[in-house]
């Protein structure tokens, strides 16, 4: 029987081969049509991947060879196997002064392979700028740093805590737009009707409604969570334009891939079914208040078995009361809480 790390490495290689086959769709592929004669995007999809929005410093190019990808995926599988080992019950409680960390990584599901687009391994979703980095303007970077500082150091009440902690939207930008992969719960269910497309997000039970019959945004005073989205078809591609974002979701914290979007940003997404098992998801962000240029990215959405189960965040949300109770205890004792990374 294979050891756990060997099994995970084998799984990573199999997933990589499957992803390569899926994205390298046959020339002339025709997406199936739904009952309204439109390309059928319905089903459960996932963007779980070892590839992230921005390119890590270790990579200098947009693509890797299959051999380079396999070696990296093997290392990640070994690290995951180590993180997932059960805690030794004989160790007892950790010393009070030390951070005990999590029990293991069994609850995470970030993916086992790097993303592939047109059969080529991607080191980042961002394709423009060519360096794979978010092109913050000086003012935009200042705003981002200040928003992150506030999120890391605000303990007076729930209103200033990140939306994921408050069970409003998912962590990072998993709810979108743009929809980005995170540490777990990376599934999306797409449902179509004649007049709308609904994207149900697994993380934190978000459902975004994309209107197909009304291609006008309401007054700027109406700013729902996830913005206001309408769409149209260009051939077999669903194009979705979103603006009127709620100011409360400007900061979308997720480790090194935290992003900031101003309330007046415009996100344009393109969904193209390229095989029976994959949708090519492309998007661009136009936000002059934050970035020095329009930036663009693309990623695969791979088919996944359903159903998508309920994310019952509020029902089991012990974190937010614990965070605030800890802050009140520190106040009573005259202690200052040191900033922690709340971006994941």
Q: What overall form do the CA principal axes indicate?
A: globular
**CA-based gyration radius:** 21 Å
Number of domains: 1
Strand content: 15-25%
Tell me the strand order in the biggest sheet: 1-6-7-8-9-10-13-14-15
Low-confidence stretches: 1-26
- The tally of strands reads 15
Largest sheet: 9 strands, mixed, barrel
CA-CA gap between termini: 35 Å
Could you tell me the mean pLDDT?
Answer: 87
Percent helix range: 10-25%
| H/I helix tally | 4
Protein described:
It is a single chain. This protein is an alpha+beta fold and 344 residues long. It has one domain (4-85, 108-303). The protein is 20% helix and 23% strand. It is built from 4 helices and 15 strands. It has helices at residues 4-23, 66-83, 138-153, 319-333; strands at 43-46, 63-64, 116-117, 120-122, 126-128, 187-192, 196-201, 206-211, 228-234, 237-243, 251-252, 259-260, 266-275, 278-286, 295-303. Strands 1-6-7-8-9-10-13-14-15 form a 9-stranded mixed β-barrel. β7 and β8 form a beta hairpin. α1 packs across α2 (66-83). The longest helix has 20 residues, at 4-23. Mean pLDDT is 87; it is low at 1-26.
């Amino acid at each position: 029987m294979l050891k756990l790390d060997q099994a995970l490495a084998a799984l990573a290689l199999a997933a990589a081969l499957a992803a390569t086959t899926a994205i390298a769709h046959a020339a002339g592929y025709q997406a199936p049509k739904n009952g309204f004669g439109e390309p059928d995007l319905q089903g459960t999809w996932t963007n779980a991947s070892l590839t992230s929005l921005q390119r890590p410093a270790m990579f200098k190019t947009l693509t890797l060879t299959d051999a380079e990808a396999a070696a990296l995926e093997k290392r990640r599988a070994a690290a995951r196997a180590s993180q997932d080992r059960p805690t030794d019950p004989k160790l007892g409680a950790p010393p009070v002064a030390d951070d005990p960390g999590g029990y293991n990584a069994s609850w995470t599901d970030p993916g086992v392979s790097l993303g592939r687009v047109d059969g080529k391994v991607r080191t980042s979703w961002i394709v423009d700028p060519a360096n794979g980095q978010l092109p913050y303007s000086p003012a935009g970077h200042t705003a981002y740093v200040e928003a992150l500082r506030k999120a890391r150091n605000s303990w007076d009440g729930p209103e200033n805590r990140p939306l994921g902690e408050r069970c409003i939207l998912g962590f990072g930008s998993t709810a979108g737009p743009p929809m980005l992969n995170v540490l777990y719960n990376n599934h999306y269910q797409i449902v179509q009707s004649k007049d709308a497309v609904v994207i149900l997000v697994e993380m934190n039970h978000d459902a975004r409604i994309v209107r197909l019959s009304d291609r006008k945004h309401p007054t700027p005073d109406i700013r729902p969570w996830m913005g206001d989205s309408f769409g149209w078809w260009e051939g077999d591609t669903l194009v979705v334009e979103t603006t009127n974002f709620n100011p409360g979701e400007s900061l979308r914290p997720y480790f090194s891939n935290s992003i900031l979007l101003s309330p007046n940003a415009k996100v344009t997404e393109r969904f193209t079914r390229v095989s029976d098992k994959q949708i090519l998801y492309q998007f661009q962000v136009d936000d002059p208040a934050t970035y020095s240029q329009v930036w663009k990215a693309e990623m695969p959405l791979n088919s996944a078995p359903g159903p998508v189960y309920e994310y019952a965040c509020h029902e089991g949300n012990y974190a937010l009361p614990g965070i605030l109770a800890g802050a009140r205890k520190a106040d009573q004792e005259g202690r200052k809480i040191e900033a922690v990374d709340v971006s994941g």
